Amino acid sequence: MLKLLAHGALLAAAEGESRGIDLVLPNMHELVAGVISFLIVFGFIWWKGRGLIGRMVTARQEAVRRPLAEAEEAKVKAEGLLAERRREVSGARDEANRIIEEGRRSAEAARAEILAKAKAEADELTRRSREAIEADKERAAAQMRDLVAVLSLELAQKVVSGSVDAAVQQALVDRYIEELEGMPR
Questions:
Q1: CA distances from 80 to 16, 70, 71, 77, 88 (A)
Q2: Among 124, 172, 123, 181, which Cα is nearest to 152's?
Q3: Is-contact 165 151, C-beta < 8 A?
Q4: CA distance 101 to 77
Q5: Span 156-174, mean pLDDT?
Q6: Which H or E run includes 106?
Q7: CA neighbours within 13 Å on the CB side: how many for 57?
Q8: What is the largest CA-CA distance in the chain?
């Protein structure tokens, strides 16, 4: 290639008419022929290839547009599913809180009921115990009265049957005390 450039430069120098700008600018006849050839080829390609090129561009646009539309549709669907899941989670939290609160109320009610039953049973047991103590007191008092009556009668019989001196009287009191100590309490 360098050889060709060197050969072209030698020919131009040999002609003598060429100046520096002529080396850069092409010959006017060649330029016009090149432009006309370019327009003919461009026109032919435009005439024959315009439909094919249009279809290729349209197909490429569709190939780009379709995944974008599908991605947008998937994004919208995913956002909808996310919102739905968030509502479900929120609903589940609300339901769990409601169940917990219901359990607390139920436990509090059961606790109150158990305490009320225990208090009622304790009150009933206290009442029965007091009644039993009162009955035992009355029984003990009745036994005491009966014993005093019997002892009084025995004492009266002994007093009537004979004279009671100080020694006999002391013996009677001692025996009475022993009988009282031997009584069930």
A1: 83, 15, 14, 5, 12
A2: 172
A3: no
A4: 36
A5: 70
A6: helix 28-161
A7: 6
A8: 197
- CA-nearest of 137, 155, 13, 176 to 5 is 13
- The length of the chain in residues reads 185
Q: How many CA atoms lie within 13 A of 60 on its CB side?
A: 6
Q: Which amino acid is at 175?
A: R
Query: How many structural domains compose the chain?
Result: 1
What would the pLDDT profile of 74-120 be if each residue is shown by its tens digit?
999 999 999 999 999 999 899 999 999 999 999 999 999 999 999 99
Nearest to 99 by CA among 87, 107, 88: 107
Structure tokens at 150: 């019997």
Distance CA 25, CA 27 (A): 7
pLDDT tens by residue, 128-164: 999 999 999 888 888 887 787 777 767 767 666 666 6
- pLDDT at 2 (0 to 100): 47
Assess contact for 23 and 12: CB atoms under 8 A.
yes
The range of the structural domain enclosing residue 44 comes to: 2-181
